[in-house]
Structures are given as structure tokens and as C-alpha cells.
Specification:
The chain is α+β, with helices and mostly antiparallel strands and 501 residues long. Helix content is 33%, strand content 20%. The longest helix has 25 residues.
Length: 501
């Protein structure tokens, strides 16, 4: 176990991708085992010293930024074992997602969760229930977690298997530590928004599985040290396209149709018996402003387009021809600019398409650095039937501001990112006000304030606006049951004051 106290050693661990300022800590500990983590937490709990879990620090909401106390880094918890026969992997919390994906690929298997930044750590993915583009078909990280080992703030160990600890009909969830102590947790009673993606607050349900409570808890309930993940058989083939549209109405009707066809397929039926089973893995959106920015790196991007959709469809040798025909029919039906669009069934060209997708955030960040400002990026999701209204709100509000912006992201899940790119302090101030209006609009439409990035420290006031005091107090009660002295992830999700009531 390494212990570091010099500022030069700590500096890179005092911030994350949010660039939230002011982070500081007394020391950083780099454990190599769960026993060492248990030892650190027992002592910290007795002395009531705050502990901040630190993964790869790719988060955008300040969750990994410490404000005093101990930084607990997981970089040495990097053991990885894949079982081909059971199609599972046992993964240390510090394993890099890209390394897991490479190992899974070499084993001829498939791990669907694909957040944009593959340099993240699996422990962080689980702590934030990370998702990404393929969540349209496969869901977020939660869908693939079968077990985990957790060290509580007291130093006690929990070994959790899916289905092992389930809340009773009265809403009480009991878990037993390896030392035999029973911890009783009262499940929060709030109703979750009817959205496809939501990481706003602790997960809850009528029959809550304990493992789901820890997934997405952002390091506030326990330290996740090892995870068992489910793998899938690798798809045998695929068909992908980046499709351009000259009119917004055609693009949106195409998405509606592709989404409905995909959902229908997953329910075991298609809209017409003669139709092949269209089932998109992902549906990603780029607005006109996004395409203009991407064109700086991909000059072959066709000009004067209203927007584009990046889609993928898994295929087999038996259905590939029929599915290609079905997608072409769908594109023609909705007036896509097919001749200007790009399609592939090869891995090499698919990599180029993904480079096209990732060129946007790279170019956005370059623009922000050039402007010497910070981007203001939204992460709200709304119910399906409110999506068109929310997109109109985005376009009208951002368009009227005069501030440069792009809108892109996971349109299949009714979850888009609007990035404002201010050039001056005045524009930065107005951008923050616009962000607040977008949050209020999402809440009014029954949506959530964070669909995939989490709450951390930066968004806790927005979570308060969404939840209200009653439900934040219920979340605080859950935390007190598992972390009685409030040492873990202090300041994440809600203000510390809630722990004192």
C-alpha cells in the first residue's frame, strides 16, 4: 500500500474532467487489496476523516474531486479474469474499460457498455452506472453486473450476488456483512421518471436488489473493489451508416420509425409479418451545427444538411441481405440523402465512422480551449412523448441566445447533449442561466436532471430541485445506514447538511 502526501504526487488527483476548482487532500493511498482498503476505511471512520474514491477521473460532475481527507486510488486493483464457458468476467475496480474490451474481444465475446471515454475504470463505470451509445439496445452498466464486493465505510465487507438480497414488501432491505452484521436499509419512496436513462439519485424500486442500490451510488455508500460482469456472444456481423438529412422533419420521422421498429422486434414481433427484424444497436444524432464543427476534421462531410444519424444493426449471414434492404427502404421512405451518406459492413470503415462520432467532442473541447472558457453541457433525458417538445425548446432557446452551440447524442434514448460554447465572460454567465432553464424544462416535462453523467458535486442543487427535501432526506437515511459517519464521497449527490438532520 502506497501513501503519498507531497502536493506534486497529489496534484493530478485533485481534479477530474469537470475541471471543478479547489480540490485538496491530506494524502493519497494506493491500496493493492480489499484488505488494505478495509484497514484504511476502519481508521478513517473511527477518526471521521472523509474519503474520496478516485478512479480514472474521467467524470464530468466533480465526483472524484476531494475537499480534504484521503484520496483512495484504485489503479492497483487491476486484476482481470475472463471465463469463456460461463461468459463472465471478474474485474478489479481499477481495470481500464479499454483493457477489458480488448480482453473480451480476444476471447470472442462482447461487453456492450461503451461510454465515450474508454480510459475510464470499471469501478467508476459501476459507481456511475455508465452507459453510452449502445445503451439504446443493451441498457447501461447495471444490466451486466451480476455480483460485486464492497467495503463499507466501517471496513466491513459485503459480497453481493444479483437476486440474493431483495427488499421486502414493506420497503426494508437487509444485507449481511461477512462478519455477520445485518444492515437494514429503508428504500426511498420516490417515483423514478419515465425515461430510458436516469442516474439522478439512488436507484430504487418496489423489490429493490441490494446490488442495484450500489450501482450508480457514486462512491457514497461503499467502496466497490471487484465486479462480476456478464458477457455476451460476439455479434457475427453488422451494418452501419451515417445518414444525412436535408430536413429536420424527415430526420425525426426516420428516428421515430427506426425506434418503433426496434422496440417491436425486441418484443418478438414486427409491424408487418413480411418485414425483417430491424433492431438498431444505436441511434446517434448530430445537428447542423455539429456537422459544421465535424467538417473541420472531416471535410468530406456534405454541406447544408439539417442533421445526421449514426446507426448500427447487428446481422447474421442469413439475414444480412434482407436487413440491408429493410434499412434502405426505411431511408428512402423518410427522404434521407442516401447518395451523400456513408454505409459499411467492415470493421475498418466502422472505426472511421466512430472517429467521426468522436471528432465532435474533441473539436468542441478544442474550441473551448481556444475561447478560454468552459463548455456548458446538458445531460437531461425526457419521456418519449415529450422528446420533440424538448428538442424544440433546445433549438429555440439556444438559437435565440446568439451563443455558439451544438446538439448531439443518444436520440434513440430521447437523451441529447446540448453544448454551449461561450466566447466571453458575459456569454459564459448567460450560458449557465440557459442551462438552468433547460433543467427546469426537463423537470417540468417529467424528465431527469442527469441521464448518464451523474450528480457529483456540480449538480446536487439540480437534484434537489428535481427531488425536493423529502426525498433527499430519504437518500440521506440510506447513506446513514451504510456510512453512519458520512465519510464516503462527502459532498456528492447532496449537501452534507442532510446527514445532520
Amino acid at each position: 500500500m502506497q501513501v503519498k502526501t507531497q502536493l506534486d504526487d497529489l496534484q493530478n488527483y485533485l481534479t477530474d474532467a469537470s475541471n471543478m476548482p479547489g480540490g485538496f487532500a491530506d494524502k493519497m493511498i494506493v491500496p493493492e487489496s480489499e484488505a488494505e482498503i478495509a484497514e484504511v476505511l476502519r481508521e478513517a471512520n473511527e477518526r471521521r476523516i472523509p474519503v474520496t474514491a478516485s478512479g480514472a477521473r474521467t467524470g464530468t460532475v466533480g465526483g472524484a474531486i476531494p475537499f480534504g481527507g484521503i484520496i483512495l486510488s484504485f489503479e492497483k486493483l487491476n486484476k482481470l479474469a475472463i471465463d469463456r464457458e460461463s461468459e463472465t468476467a471478474k474485474v478489479g475496480a481499477g481495470v481500464i474499460l479499454g483493457d477489458l474490451q480488448k480482453a473480451v474481444e480476444q476471447a470472442g465475446l462482447f461487453y456492450p457498455p461503451d461510454p465515450t471515454e474508454w480510459s475510464c475504470q470499471i469501478g467508476g463505470n459501476v459507481a456511475t452506472n455508465a452507459s453510452g451509445a449502445r445503451s439504446f439496445k443493451y441498457g447501461a452498466t447495471r444490466e451486466f453486473v451480476e455480483g460485486m464486493r464492497v467495503v463499507l465505510a466501517t471496513g466491513e465487507l459485503l459480497s453481493l450476488r444479483r437476486g440474493e438480497y431483495i427488499a421486502d414488501p414493506t420497503g426494508l432491505l437487509s444485507v449481511t456483512t461477512e462478519d455477520g452484521r445485518i444492515v437494514v436499509i429503508k428504500v426511498p419512496t420516490y417515483e423514478r421518471p419515465n425515461v430510458r436513462k436516469n442516474v439522478s439519485g439512488f436507484y430504487n424500486s418496489r423489490s429493490l436488489d441490494a446490488i442495484d442500490l450500489f450501482i450508480g451510488s457514486e462512491g457514497t455508500l461503499g467502496v466497490i473493489v471487484e465486479i462480476d460482469v456478464k458477457l455476451l456472444s460476439k455479434p457475427s456481423g453488422f451494418f452501419s451508416g451515417i445518414v444525412f438529412f436535408e430536413k429536420d422533419a424527415d430526420l425525426l420521422s426516420f428516428v421515430d420509425d427506426a425506434r418503433a421498429r426496434s422496440f417491436s422486434t425486441r418484443k418478438g414481433r414486427t409491424s408487418r409479418l413480411s418485414e425483417p427484424d430491424i433492431d438498431a444497436t444505436l441511434l446517434e444524432y448530430f445537428d447542423a451545427n455539429s456537422l459544421k464543427l465535424i467538417a473541420e476534421k472531416f471535410p468530406e462531410t456534405p454541406p447544408n444538411m439539417a442533421g445526421a444519424i449514426f446507426f448500427e444493426q447487428e446481422t447474421t449471414d442469413d439475414n444480412e441481405d434482407a436487413l440491408l434492404g429493410a434499412w434502405n427502404e426505411l431511408l428512402e421512405k423518410h427522404n434521407a440523402a442516401v447518395d451523400a451518406s456513408w454505409f459499411t459492413t467492415t470493421e475498418q470503415d466502422l472505426s472511421k465512422m466512430r472517429e467521426f462520432r468522436h471528432a465532435l467532442p474533441v473539436t468542441v473541447n478544442e474550441r473551448v480551449v481556444r475561447n478560454r472558457q468552459k463548455k456548458i453541457g446538458t445531460d437531461m433525458a425526457v419521456p418519449d412523448d415529450k422528446f420533440a417538445s424538448f428538442l424544440r425548446f433546445y433549438n429555440e432557446t439556444l438559437g435565440a441566445s446568439g451563443i455558439e452551440y451544438v446538439i448531439f447524442g443518444h436520440i434513440g434514448d430521447c437523451h441529447l447533449h446540448a453544448n454551449l460554447l461561450p466566447k466571453t465572460e458575459d456569454e459564459a454567465t448567460r450560458s449557465r442561466h440557459i442551462y438552468g432553464r433547460c433543467v427546469a424544462q426537463a423537470i417540468m416535462l417529467g424528465g431527469c436532471v442527469s441521464a448518464e453523467h451523474g450528480i457529483g458535486k456540480l449538480k446536487r442543487n439540480y437534484l434537489a430541485a428535481m427531488m425536493g427535501e423529502r426525498y433527499l432526506n430519504e437518500m440521506a437515511e440510506v447513506k446513514r445506514a451504510l456510512d453512519p459517519n458520512g465519510i464516503l464521497g462527502r459532498g456528492n449527490m447532496f449537501n452534507e447538511a442532510y446527514l445532520n438532520t
